[in-house]
Amino acid sequence: MSRKGDCWDNAPTERFFGSLKGEFYNQLFPQSKAQGRRKVIEYIEMFYIYSVEKIS
Q1: Higher pLDDT among residues 34 and 14, named by residue
Q2: In angstroms, rounded to a whole number, what is the distance separating the alpha carbons of residues 54 and 56?
Q3: What is the C-alpha to C-alpha distance for residues 36 and 24, in angstroms, rounded to an integer?
Q4: Domain boundaries in the chain?
Q5: SS3 for 7?
Q6: pLDDT surpassing 80 at residue 1
Q7: Contacting residues for 30 by C-beta, under 8 A, at least 6 apart
Q8: How many angstroms separate the Cα of 13 from the Cα of each of 8, 16, 32?
Q9: Is the pLDDT of residue 26 over 80?
């Protein structure tokens, strides 16, 4: 569990959601909830593949 003042615990999560938010604000908003869900899943897969390739 995180302790008060320990900022490193949330850094990866904040980076991911900050990137996700930035990408979606630059694109069109989804027309339906299902389309939005698909776009988020596609982004997660793309983010993960890029992270794995960057490490390798």
Answers
A1: 34
A2: 6
A3: 10
A4: 28-56
A5: helix
A6: no
A7: 36, 38, 39
A8: 10, 5, 25
A9: no
Check residue 31 and report its DSSP letter.
S
User: Which residue reads 């949330």 in tokens?
Assistant: 10
- Cα–Cα distance measured from residue 56 to residue 50, given in angstroms and rounded to the nearest whole number: 10
**Alpha helices per DSSP H over the chain:** 11-25, 33-55
Task: Quote the crossing angle between the two packed helices 33-55 and 11-25, to the nearest 10°.
Answer: 130
Q: Which residues of 18-43 are buried (b: 16+ CB within 10 A; e: fewer)?
A: eeeeeeeeeeeeeeeeeeeeebeeeb
The number of residues in the chain equals 56
* Placement of tokens 């850094």 in the chain: 11
